[in-house]
């Protein structure tokens, strides 16, 4: 190919550009210095139209042709880590973790922290990239499970449901306790629903994990969320069973919203009382809910009840908040 006949230094420089994507001139110079290349090595690709001005490839296939194997990639990531040492922290950490290593626990910790910040800011794909790299950089099964779960969660938020499920499955397998597995299976069941999968396997897995919980210490809110998710999954599939499962919730566990919503949607004899409780306790119980937020489910009920003006007002307040 055109790229294969270039000198070794030029091929190495092109490989670095293929790995880096868009790269400012100053950072490109720093990275080139690390691999023994310079801007002069790009003159021929620029003249022949492989690159355009600014150092980007003229076509994605040319970029793909410049890529190298995994072992050859790692030194390029090392060079880019140096180039981004004073740049965006996520870019620096991503290249560090994709480099030759080793990757101490402090780097994994920082990468996880930065990825969570990216998630909170809505940069889900960037969060995924960092979490996947951190997961690949640790051999600790517990950390791998946590990082895999968080990567799956970010993929789900980005709408990449099928990709997310493969990470949830591995995270559940690697989980070191029933409590940890319950947390994974709760979210996994909802993502399976959104991915168009059958509900029954996820419900069965969640039920099995809930049955195994009593012998372990588990956060009360997380236990409530798990029961609420179980009821909620039945709310979207079989309201009769949803109400039966609501009666199974152990004493002292308060999955506030979903059992009440099940009564309202099924129009049980105590539906009106359930609706009043939902309205009265909404603010106090905001934390004791399933994966669906109470605000969203309350809007659903207002629509089902034909209370259009109230629903519109509710939606506006939710948007403003």
Describe this structure in words.
This protein has helices at 8-20, 25-35, 43-47, 60-66, 70-83, 89-98, 105-120, 124-136, 141-157, 161-174, 178-194, 199-212, 220-235, 239-246, 257-266, 271-281, 294-304, 308-320, and strands at 51-52, 56-57. With 321 residues, the protein is mainly alpha-helical. The protein has a two-stranded antiparallel sheet with strand order 1-2. Strand 1 and strand 2 (56-57) form a beta hairpin. The chain is elongated.
State the total count of DSSP E strands.
Answer: 2
Radius of gyration: 26 Å
Number of helices: 18
Termini separation: 56 Å
Q: Uncertain runs with pLDDT below 50, 5 residues or more?
A: 285-292
What order do the strands of the largest sheet run in, or round the barrel if closed? 1-2
The coarse silhouette is elongated
Mean pLDDT equals 87
What order do the SSEs take from the amino end to the carboxyl end, as H and E? HHHEEHHHHHHHHHHHHHHH
Percent in helix? 55-70%
The assigned structural class equals: mainly alpha
Give a quick account of the main beta sheet: strands, pairing sense, barrel closure.
2 strands, antiparallel
β-strand amount: under 5%
List the helices and strands and how they pair.
Layout lengths: L7 H13 L4 H11 L7 H5 L3 E2 L3 E2 L2 H7 L3 H14 L5 H10 L6 H16 L3 H13 L4 H17 L3 H14 L3 H17 L4 H14 L7 H16 L3 H8 L10 H10 L4 H11 L12 H11 L3 H13 L1
Antiparallel strand pairs: 1-2
Structure summary:
This protein has 321 residues and is mainly alpha-helical. 69% of the residues lie in helices and 1% in strands.
